[in-house]
Amino acid sequence: MVKNVIVVGGGIGGTMTANSLVAKLYPEVSRDKVRITLISNSPWHYYKPAFMYVAFGAFYKNELRRPQASLLRPEINFVLDEVEGFEFSASRLRMSSGKTYDYDYLVVSTGCIPSPERIAGLQEAGDHFYQHDPAMQLYRKLATIEKGRIFIGVTFPKTPNVPHQCGIAPMETTLMLDEFLRQRGVRNQIEIVYTYPTVSQLLRNCLFLQKDTSEVLPAIFESKDIKYQRGFTLARVDPEKQVAISEEGQEEPFDILMQTPPIRAVDAVLNSGVSQASNNEGWLPTNRQSLQLEGFDNVFVMGDTVDLPISKAGGSCHSQSPVICNNMAGLMRIGKTVAEYDGKVQAVAQMGMEAGMPLWYDYDVDVKPTPPTKIGGLMRKGFNRGVYWSVARGLV
Amino acid sequence: MDNTPTAMTAAHPIDRVLRASPELQDQATLDGMSDLITKVAPLLQGRRLHNIVDLLAATSDIVEMADDAMVQKLMAFYEDTTGGVWAVGNALRYASARAARAEAPPTLWRSMRRLRKDDDARRGLDMAVNFLAELGRQSRATHGPMPAD
Predict the structure, then answer these.
(1) In this complex, do A381 and B97 lie within 8 Å of one another by their Cβ atoms?
(2) Could you report the predicted ipTM of this complex, rounded to two decimals?
(3) Cβ contacts of A62 within 8 Å, gap of 6 or more
């Protein structure tokens, strides 16, 4: 009997996992014992981290996307449709097209959605770089501002110990912004203020979600005349007065508000009834070692959708994907999972427009910050422009 | 010139640096350096280490010269190459696996019928013809007759 494996989500996690599953299960796939399907609601695959470069005019739309089907091995059945309902108990997916799909094994990699509308006034007056169109809107402002105040803030999920999307992005973009404005020759007339909320996962009153990195930031910011402020948790925005108001009671004026917005899981995950996350954020309860959905051994969760304390970023998916492939193969072949995720995340942080800093951490060991270098910057550029697509194909 | 060791150590700034470095007060560091010097000594004596230093200098020069445009062009080449090889490899593996699955190969008539009915098969044939035509055009452009100077 054919086993149906369905991967939901055409982001980096779903794409690399579908490709890697074909490789891992090839003996079964080639004999039609296993059928692998990837479901995505978009015909395009977007390299999402490149959206932050769009905000600085450094990437065009066609450079950061590929047709989804062109990134998949031919053994994968690609379905362009949207999941409307996850029926985990029945191992069934209800689609917006009206179709249903039954599965034997499921991978949920549906990402997260920036939701600025969850903070009053933020949608109208704030900007962010986590999607293409908002990033373009931010670019238009950054490319024309001559003087004033750019206020940078970060919103964490309300679910305890769950990070915001791509933990290092606010710091990366702050340093990129400084260099971008210097290149434009307007930096002296523009004040940059970097802020961080009072609660950031397990830390309090820091500048970053990990202590070691938080401690090196003041010196970096001071060397670039970037102001910084702890304990600013954005509560609401007054679009008319252009003022950001914090839960701690401060009011800060801005000409541009660059705010990492609240995030949530996609509607179908939110409505599945399985999540125990606060504030209707929808993160799925995920076994931190096996990456199985709690209570459903045939379902695996990865990427932004998990409720784990690790970065919601491609660098997490890259380490989660082999664990899921091994565990699914283990369940099929010997009836048990065999691999454990150690929380590893790896990336090359963009530190300004030219420099980069390779980093890695896991559940137990935080990032050890090292001096940014030009070689690090070249590594990041090389990844952005080429290696990423090999990662999506499951080659790296 | 005073060559007595006492005078040299007192006067030489590098000695002060060596003494101030906590790593160099560690016996493991000194043992490691001693091993390293033993390995490097023949290279230094034969002036072969110079080549390694030149190689490092050339690598460093390339890093200095690399800019955004160069990275984009190199990575476009990388992506074209790996993407192309991956796509052709996929097609070969998939086609081969499908062809091997049937106990007996299809009759010529059945293959012709598939070619007539399957749009993708006809598109593949058209792509192969286009590929051959492009090879021919390039051959003419490279090796074809040129007017005399």
Answers:
(1) no
(2) 0.91
(3) none
